[in-house]
Amino acid sequence: MMRLKYGLLCAFAPLLLAAAPAQTTDIILTGGSILTMAGDQPELVEAILLRNGKIAALGSLATVKKAAAKKVEMVDLKGSTVLPGFIDAHGHMGYVGQNAAMAQLQPPPVGTVTSIAELQDALRQYPRPDGMPLIIGNGYDDSQLAERRHPTRADLDAVSTTVPILILHVSGHFAAMNSAMLMLVGYTPETPDPQGGVIRREADGKTPNGVLEETALYPVMKVLTPPSIDASIAPLVTGAKIYAANGITTGQDGRIMPENWAAMEEADKRGLFPIDVVALTSFERDWPAAVRTRIGKPYPAGGHVRIGGIKLTIDGSPQGRTAWLKDPVPIPPHGQKEGYAGYPAIDLKLLNAKLADAAQNGWQVFVHVNGDAAAQALIDGVRDNGLAGKRTIAIHNQVVQLDQLKDMKALDIQPSFFANHTYYWGDWHRDVALGAKRADFISPQATGWALGLRPTAHNDSPVVPPDMMRLVWSSVNRLTQSGDILGPMERISPYRALQQVTINAAWQIGEDGDKGSLSPGKRADLVILDGNPLTVDAAKIYSIKVVATIKDGKTIYGSIGASREP
What kind and span of H or E run contains 166? Predict the structure, then answer.
């Protein structure tokens, strides 16, 4: 998704307390299913010993007791299931926090907005904080609205002609504005479309109709510059708290801008993050030398934030029909003619220059690619710029083709699939955005595994909530909201789906020596669930809830069970 800043909202989001200090006493967890994720087949152990924020031992209860200190706290899991803490393979943690303070415009199953009239009512009812000059909403979805279109300037002017209104598409790749907001941004009939974006027009072909695509959203960032560093910090920490409640112990802020890096760094210095955060620099932008030297470095001593690599965006959104495809979409979007196949969101000369820069500096590269034409641009760029064998991460990969996956294997381009698309937009992809053949091969996880790749899956939150059990369920079932199964041959086992959000996700960011599986010496990052994803009905995996989240041996969400004498 495209990351935006909504600083004027940030001052109204609550700050969390500093994360608890690391565990200092021995704790044994037993009485449940402890799934190590340490091998290619499921492995269950009876007990696990946590000491000083690390895993000290695991195995039979007798073995673990022998490894424990004389004084140890025993915790009865009461039948719960323990896994390594989930790792967010791709998401936007700060935007998750920002979204929490916006008017909620999502359709079911996340929200309730199913028509433009309901969207207008939600904006009218939004409790705009005192002093905030804008009305900002998030999550509208033209594919799920009764009108099957984006709200326009006229629709939003019906809510207010004086207060600027900005609403963001669920994908993060579109926005709609009223007349007051267009004026604030500076968009007029004379404003040309930017490179890699579109300002949609009214019937005269000139007047902006309020809907913006891709890079046309960039001026919004300047208008919504955070008023203070504390205002920028607040949503980052709120997002981290939401992640922790979903069992995530390592989150990602997948497209940070130069203007908000200072806030992330300051929040970490203040000890405000309860989880680890891997940040990716938006590398279409210029970064100062002091930040460039941090790219790819480990977490600082006592810190929870590191810059994992650079982020580039080649194309847009498949459900928004801005993904860059080789073949046309079945039904073109507003203003486009038959034969339309999306478009690149970056000049390819700039893309290759940035890839070469990363190769020269030894930085890991993370690239947003949705369409198969975008995937080809990435494959060519990696091959031509010295990045082969460097574990480049291809984010989303919705429409990647079989021959491209084979090339990715040869070049060590590892896919991170947006696997929840089958559920949230599968019917739309089949009927409108991609067509049945491409929709059946969307997010081809089984093929990726079969070719020897090490795929991950992600929610791209807040595009969809950071619900890891829904994500695992989607990877296993590939069910659409209408009950169709998209590409049944691309379904994977529950264990494979869990690997994608634990050990594979750790491996893709180079942290598998410390995280992603349960073994002695690794960090005591755990999630405790109220059901075992390997034994429940596969159709019900989404109903499993997070009971507790443990980071470095300390509970940061929920409760891990009842203590008893050893």
Answer: strand 165-169
Give strand ranges (E) for 215-316.
248-256, 276-282, 305-313
* pTM across the whole model: 0.92
User: What are phi and psi for residue 499, nearest 5 degrees?
Assistant: -55, -35
Residue written as token pair 């934030």: 305
The residue written with tokens 């696997």 in the block is 419
DSSP 382: H
Q: Is the dihedral of CA 20, 24, 30, 36 positive or negative?
A: positive
Please write the tens of the pLDDT for every residue from 356-384. Answer: 999 999 999 999 999 999 999 999 999 99
For residues 527-543, b (16+ Cβ closer than 10 Å) or e, as one string?
Answer: bbbbbbbbebebeebbe
Kindly report, residue by residue over 19-38, the tens digit of the pLDDT: 445 556 899 999 999 999 99
Q: Is the peptide bond before 462 cis (omega within 30 degrees of 0)?
A: yes
Per DSSP, the chain holds a count of helices (H) and strands (E) of: 20, 23
DSSP category for residue 489: G
Give the Cα separation of 254 and 459 in Å (integer): 12
Q: Which residues are bridge partners to 55 per DSSP?
A: 50
